[in-house]
Design goal:
The structure is a homodimer of 774-residue chains. Chain A has 774 residues and is α+β, with helices and mostly antiparallel strands. The first copy, chain A, contains 19 helices and 30 strands. Chain A folds into 3 domains: 149 residues, 2-Layer Sandwich (Aldehyde Oxidoreductase, domain 4), CATH 3.30.365.10; 194 residues, Aldehyde Oxidoreductase, domain 3 (Alpha-Beta Complex), CATH 3.90.1170.50; 228 residues, 2-Layer Sandwich (Aldehyde Oxidoreductase, domain 4). Helix content of chain A is 28%, strand content 24%. In chain A, strand 11, helix 6 and strand 12 form a beta-alpha-beta unit. In chain A, helix 6 packs across helix 7, helix 14 packs parallel to helix 15 and helix 15 packs across helix 16. Chain A is globular.
């Protein structure tokens, strides 16, 4: 008999039928009686003071039901509100600008009308008088003294320093002094947009009794609840956020977006439900995006490849607002040195405010940029030292049981296995340095977290993730979870965990998810936390439920509960599956005997490996319960005439601990590859003088299915001791090795090293020219 | 300090703001994307065999998306499905007729189309070939041998006997033999419709994954869930019934109506959500209604008024189907003798199938007809014996602590207090027999149940009522209850009970109610059960929650939990309200210390006074946890020229045990009076040869606000030992005394006794003529 009945299986997702048949209703599909449509007036200037707004004409337009401006917004700026001791600059944005606009697209006013056309017409009738101010668009310029100040009060220090992180451990000077080779280089990466197929969407319904209900396309309903409550100045429990099916988030919908309180305020003022759906232009320009970075990197190594010291400096363009920037700048530094062991490290990260659209968190948050730099450097070092790029990676690699200098507890590690499996799949030993000119292979490794362990929110909330399970008389179980499936399939994962633990088929599990009025608190979908956090909470609830079932069955079977097992819908004495009682009959017996509902609870809080704070001086942080590892190899074919890089194959080995649903893990890996191919080749959110040049999907080029190379997903299972059934993340880490693996393969193919993204044909040709010219 | 902070207060209902502002959205207000509109083809014949149905033309009509007939319906007839050992004739109806139609209005086919007009056009295109059968419309004729048979297989015995109840206790012959007076008489009452302002309404959404969600205007979502599941042949847990706000039910929406599985089947066949809203004609004709009764009644009394024996025979017109008829016929008998003590009793109830529209349960179920008969008889006996009608009622009255012959346990009794307060209010002693000709006063008493104690459903369900409560970090509590507020205000009652128990204001309580996918099982709104059952479940959950709060606060206050009390949002050592901790801070402390969600559960099952069965031979039944009492007096002015009866005042004293919300109790009393004034004077669902003559609110005359006489509601609080804080029912019992009080007052005014309802001017004039003619 197989160890597991439901987990470890390639099961179709619970939401798949709804999605292929069109049953699934997204926020924009929904209609409420009397619903109005909202539109937002946005700043045409990068930086300006709002002198006067006259909404009278707009208000008089027939069909307009409400117009709001910054005056209608509470004086509490919104942001990530619940961070214990968070400095005030963590909250630097009003839902609608109050005094100044800071980028082209900043919210200036909003209108609710009986249809979208009238709402658009009304925007044209709002008269705004601006005093245009000098603006700054380059982060390095922005950090210089005398630069125009984007924020008068929120910057961390004087000037436009949005936030910075500077930490070190070990003895960096000694490390470099003892190195045989010290390599320095410079890297740059671009703005990249989340671009979910479903843009940010909201329906808000403010009732006359003071309660407001919102249907949000969001990753974090419980955080949005707080932001709306604070902006509207109502108690948190008066705000109910319901998360309908979400068509992708990728980190952008982890931001507590201004759109939501705006819709709620329009609803309050009009007395009607209000729907607002971002246009594609708004979705590209007026949401957060991945930080562009400018990196100076320095690594010292021994002759044998052992890393002695790393020093790096990241300067990022934060744009006009903070969003998750404080986390990004920290993660760039903290994720950089894994999957390798480091004794001596110094990191300086600076985030500048500019008058560009703002940056925030995006899938692979902090890891994308870090891995591109480090994995490029690893290959460059290996070449200088004439080492095998696989060996230098293995030699420096973290191992199970290691506790890093900054107290990362490595509970499981598939680093070496990933390298071995990926290289075997790509045929590394026959290809590396052996393919004809123009063809090459490259490798890069992965290191990521499985959710954030810091208890930022715990003071106000009961636990990181809570789950309730109730049993029904036909043998079904309802799992109430506040976790947010935004397309990644986490509800199916939780259902599999519940079914396996309870010993029933997945068809017996119903998920009720993400409704702040109904489901236990869960912080949401970000940092690849859902399988680890909601998965463990589900497992814990199911264990409690199972115990009640076993005790009930024990009486019926005249056995000890400890001697029983539950599997495939039946409870029986271990080893005697023929004699037993069905789970359904056990539930009915419970009801008959106890005459009370049968419910169970579970929750999950991550282990406190170290004190529950971020040490900004040493880089010590209780980052995550579990670290994922992996290694991607790729084979490329570079056309030296055109500069076009063709990806022949990607062999993506990812250590997800244990694959609850291998098909879902593969889907995540493939999605991550596609997304990072976008950043590698075509996705480039370009801003000129603060003005977006990429306002549609014609300009902002997402890879399509036709662009997808063959991807072989290889699941490495290191069985983590903290993850549910050993599982770790597989939704973000797999974004990170693609770009550096390609850059390394291009070097193997044509001997040029691309250190800035994206890799355009022009860039390849120019690099070839430069190399030839030398 | 007052004993209670939240209960016993005249608080506005939680739903009041939504209802007066129009925020409240009923089923018909809701729109789903792609929603279709359903219409039902109904039989034009009272009794006919369906030979052939051709739906081809209807299916070809552009805009039509689904047509269904009886062939699409499972072979499981629907009805109240979960009654342990229920005989097969309890389920005698298919959602759509399969072989025969049995009344004008019976469902023959149904259509879903893109709008209502097309659906109506499609009905015209369905060709049905009928073989018309002989029909029977009179219940007495129907019970005779040789009458046309309405059901071939479901009747209880041969012929058209739908169901009968025959029981007796004591020695009826001896009782009459020992009586000084034996009075016999005959009474008749008419069909009366529920006529909620919101007709039966449904939106059904059958997904391709096999799950179906229904938004129903219903009193019994958990029963509808089962009916839909059985009709559609899917597991019960695959059906989710959500109860939006309901615009009145009055017992009609306790029927598991064919409309709901029809909508679900149309949705399944069309692949789209389907909405069906009854027209007013359908609501009047094609739902259940109060049974018309033909009653022969015989009472034996001693000279002093002591009742020695009662024998009665009820024949009722059940119409074409059973609905709740098996309960009605039992309740007529069982509710008849209370509020009086009886040693010897014999009851024979017969329910006939006819080809009329069908009868079922209606507010005051079984009590309306019984009280009219008994309270009229009491006055007639008092007159014959020259006794005071108040004294004969007091003398025979039940008392707290009495256990009746058929084992009713009278835990509380406000019978005498109600008589005293009502008569004092009306000025009885100065008016009875003392008013000028044409004016008079009358009295009648009440006796009703507070929910059904029989555990019909308990084999499959955990408890009669379950409640979960969860605490939120801003000090709010969410109460999850499966109970169904259909306009009676029960959610406010439960909120008050929770708030009082938890020691917080009602503004801190949020109710999540009646969603089979979310809330614990509760059997619904019928038999006036909600305050007793859901109220006790809420109280029990709140007690558990409070205990957790007190234990948490005890640590913070360095006190013993037992020494603490919670009141008005604060927990403190008894007697020292100045030193304490707020409930909000206690919740936050719990979260911080325990790091887990804070939830509690409660449920309620009624006491098992006697074996959990209906004794059909002795009338013994574990009917209810608590009996309500009451007495109404009324003063009337009869115009002897026109026969018009004017009600000058009604003094309505009702023993509701304890008034959780006096304003809500008064609202119920006033509503009950209005409803029974309807039956007394104007409401008369007339059927001629099976064809309804009253198809609109022009013909079926509901009393309006302008018809309402002054009503003084008098709340009598007997503090029941089983009810939450002593509360009993107040939603049905108060319907029952109005009609007999009026009939008795008319007798006092003009000396004629009306024994059939309604009391039309013609009837009064004819009675006056007859009296004059004597």
């Amino acid at each position: 008999m197989e160890k597991y009945s439901v987990i470890g299986k390639r099961l179709p997702r619970l939401d798949s039928i709804g999605k292929v048949t069109g049953d699934t209703k997204y926020t924009d599909d929904m209609l409420l009686p009397g619903m109005l449509y909202g539109k937002i007036l946005r700043s045409p200037y990068s930086h300006a003071r709002i002198i006067k707004i006259d909404t009278a004409k707009a208000e008089r337009l027939p069909g307009v039901r409400a117009v709001i401006t910054g005056k209608d917004i509470s004086d509490i700026p919104h942001g990530l509100l619940r961070i214990k001791g968070a400095p005030p600059f963590f909250r630097d944005k009003y839902a609608i600008a109050k005094e100044k606009v800071r980028y082209i697209g900043d919210e200036v006013a909003a209108v609710a009308a009986i249809d979208e056309d009238i709402a658009m017409d009304a925007l044209d009738l709002i008269e705004v008088e601006y005093e245009v101010l000098p603006a700054v668009f380059d982060p390095i310029e922005a950090l210089k003294p005398g630069a125009p100040k984007v924020h008068d009060k929120y910057a961390e220090t004087e000037g436009n320093l949005s936030t910075s992180t500077n930490f070190s451990f070990g003895d960096i000077e000694k490390g470099f002094a003892e190195s045989d080779l010290v390599l320095e280089d410079h890297f740059e990466m671009q703005f990249v947009c989340h671009t979910p197929l479903e843009p940010h969407s909201v329906i808000a319904d403010f009732s006359h009794s003071g309660d407001v209900t919102l249907w949000l396309s969001t990753q974090v309903p419980f955080l949005d609840q707080v932001v709306v409550a604070e902006t509207l100045e109502v108690p948190v429990s008066r705000v109910r956020v319901i998360k309908p099916p979400v068509g992708g988030g990728f980190g952008g919908k982890a931001d507590t977006h201004s759109l939501f309180p705006i819709a709620a305020l329009l609803s309050k003022k009009s007395g009607k439900p209000v729907k607002i759906i971002h246009t594609r232009e708004e979705e590209l320009v007026c949401t957060s995006r991945r930080h562009p970075v400018i990196v100076d990197h320095k690594t010292g190594v021994k002759k044998d490849g052992k890393i002695m010291a790393v020093e790096s400096k990241f300067i990022t363009d934060g744009g006009a607002y903070m969003s998750y920037g404080w986390a990004s700048i920290y993660l760039h530094g903290i994720l950089q040195f894994g999957p390798y062991y480091l004794d001596n490290y110094k990191y300086d990260g600076f985030r500048a405010y500019t008058n560009n659209p703002y940056s925030g968190a995006q899938r692979g948050h902090g890891g994308i940029q870090a891995r591109f730099v480090v994995e490029s450097m690893m290959d460059m070092i290996a070449e200088k030292l004439n080492l095998d790029p696989l060996e230098i990676r293995k030699k420096n690699g973290l191992k199970r049981g290691v506790i890093t200098k900054n107290k990362f507890n490595i509970r499981s590690c598939g680093h070496v296995e990933s390298i071995d499996k990926s290289t075997e799949e790509i045929g590394w030993k026959d290809k590396w340095k052996k393919l004809p000119d123009g063809k090459g292979v490259g490798i890069a490794c992965n290191f990521y977290c499985s959710g954030g362990a810091l208890s930022f929110f715990i003071d106000d909330y009961p636990s990181h993730s809570g789950v309730n399970i109730s049993a029904e008389e036909d043998g079904a179980f309802t799992v109430f979870t506040g976790s947010s499936d935004v397309g990644q399939g986490s509800e199916t994962t939780c259902a599999q965990i519940a079914a396996e633990t309870l010993g029933v088929g997945i068809d017996k599990i119903k998920i009720v998810a993400a409704d702040t009025g109904i489901t236990p608190v869960d912080f949401g979908t970000y940092s690849s936390r859902v399988t680890m956090f909601a998965g463990n909470a589900t497992k814990n609830a199911a264990i409690q439920m199972k115990q009640k079932l076993l005790e009930t069955a024990a009486e019926a079977l005249e056995a000890h509960a400890g001697d029983l097992e539950a599997r495939e819908g039946k409870i029986y004495v271990k080893g005697s599956p023929d004699k037993g009682i069905t789970v359904t009959d056990t539930i009915k017996t419970y009801f008959r005997v106890k005459k009370e509902p049968l419910t169970a609870h579970g929750h999950y809080n991550p282990p406190s490996d170290i004190a529950d704070v971020v040490r900004f001086d040493t880089g010590e942080v209780n980052l995550t319960p579990a670290f994922s590892f992996g290694a991607y190899t790729t084979e490329v074919d570079v056309d030296k005439e055109t500069g076009v890089v063709k990806i022949l194959k990607i062999a993506a080995a990812h250590d997800c601990g244990f694959a609850i649903n291998p098909m879902a893990v593969e889907g995540q890996i493939e999605g991550c590859v596609s997304m990072s191919l976008g950043q590698a080749f075509t996705e480039d959110f370009r801003v000129e003088q603060g003005c977006s040049m990429t306002n549609s999907l014609l300009d902002y080029k997402l890879p399509t299915a036709a662009d997808m190379p063959p991807v072989k997903s290889i699941i490495v299972e290191s069985i983590d001791t903290e993850g549910p059934f050993g599982a770790k993340e597989s939704s973000e880490g797999p974004t990170t090795p693609t770009m550096p693996a390609i850059a390394n393969a291009i070097y193997d193919a044509i001997g040029v090293r691309i250190k800035t993204m994206p890799i355009t044909p022009e860039k390849v040709l120019r690099a070839l020219e430069k190399k030839g010219g030398k």
